[in-house]
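Protein details
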Amino acid sequence: MRKWLAVLSLLLGLLLAGCTERGMTQEELLLTFRCSAAVTYGEETFDCRVERQGLGVVTIETSLVGYHWRGEFFSQTCAGLESVSADCPLPESCFAVRLNRYLDDLHRKNALASVSADSFQGSLEGTDYTVRADPATGRLLELSVPQIGLTARFYDYEP
């Protein structure tokens, strides 16, 4: 009887080991995308469209203002007007600046450690953050930086 119980336990262990979900790697994250985002920063919530074409090339648009980083320059758009500058004049505390910095950090090699099948943890300049993504597509679902009260939930991805 013990022999059968041991064999059954071994088979059950092998079956369960084969069913465990494989975690994502940082390289599997989809970091170029176009989607909507609900960004909470402190007491405010911003509904945005986010378009990332790669490291340093991002647009974050609210219903009033658009923020555009294009590698070598930055621009803001509002009511059909555009202001272009070599450097971003926005304060470091602006939600768009903060969100952009954390999204850019996702490109840094070995920036993230896997904490579950769909979550990673990283740190940027001593501030910890977490990222959740869809393991099937690599699309970001949420980026959260509790120390500064920033949470971005990504949805409505365009193909």
Confidence is low (pLDDT under 50) at residues 4-8, 14-18.
